[in-house]
Amino acid sequence: MNQNIRFDNKPSNNAGFTFVELIITILVLGIMASLAIYNGSRITSPHKRSLALQQVIDDINYARTLAISTNELITIEFSDSDDDYRIFKGQSNIPVQDFPNGVSGVVDFLNLNLGPTDLSNVNFDGTNRLRLLPDGVPESGGTLAINDVTLTVNELTGKCTIN
What we know:
By secondary structure, this protein is an alpha+beta fold. It has a single domain (48-162), classed as minor pseudopilin epsh fold, CATH 3.55.40. The protein is built from one helix and nine strands. It has one helix spanning 19-70; strands at residues 74-79, 84-89, 94-95, 106-108, 119-123, 129-132, 142-146, 149-153, 160-162. Strands 1, 2, 3, 4 and 6 form a five-stranded antiparallel β-sheet that branches. Strands 5-7-8-9 form a four-stranded antiparallel β-sheet, with helices on one face. Strand 2 (84-89) and strand 3 (94-95) form a beta hairpin. The chain is rod-shaped and about 105 Å long. The N and C termini lie far apart (89 Å).
């Protein structure tokens, strides 16, 4: 059997993709990417809210430790209108300059990249100030709301609980 095998080195007109196929593929990939980004931002939003709550709890605990270690009154003043809080030392309310995550004694949720955080319903014995005595115990307990979650500071121990 003698078969003639031909090798044709000419490129075929059917090889590759057409311009329309490439454009459709790019459009589909773009739509899929935009959906992934949109869903990703919805997932991180609740995570950022819980981080903001944990940030306040950690800062209250740190302020308690600071009051004990320096044997001074430490005051945390919460601002409903600015959604931030300030930390002061002593009776003369000197801003704590080196407070973690704070700038000149101010902890701002936007500076921490935690997004919009709603700080509301602050009530520590009728004021917006949590005063921690030199032994780390609060002058009075109270509550504050962060993104519709209530945080309670125990008046005897200063421990924070989430309601």
